[in-house]
Specification:
Length: 84
């Protein structure tokens, strides 16, 4: 899925999200309790994501690229999978 926003805008969004999560507010306010990581991600290397998320929770590693959500046909299916 090709983003409809400029690279710099996406970069700033990621920086802001990183700062928010690292401040300790992100996990609580965003209600993050799972992180699904595609082990073949060519945008954000899986090892970098794993290193980050292991400080906050146990990530779920899937056999996918950067956007693994095509693996599931519905949010309910994704939630069921992540609940394992």
């Amino acid at each position: 899925i090709q983003p409809q926003r400029e690279f710099e805008e996406q970069k700033e969004e990621l920086k802001a999200l990183q700062g928010y999560i690292e401040s300790g507010n992100g996990k609580h306010c965003l209600n993050i309790n799972k992180a699904i990581i595609g082990k073949h991600d060519k945008i954000i290397p899986a090892n970098n994501q794993i290193a980050f998320w292991k400080k906050h929770l146990e990530p779920i590693i899937v056999d996918a690229g950067h956007y693994p959500f095509f693996m599931w046909e519905s949010w309910e299916e994704l939630i069921d999978y992540a609940g394992k």
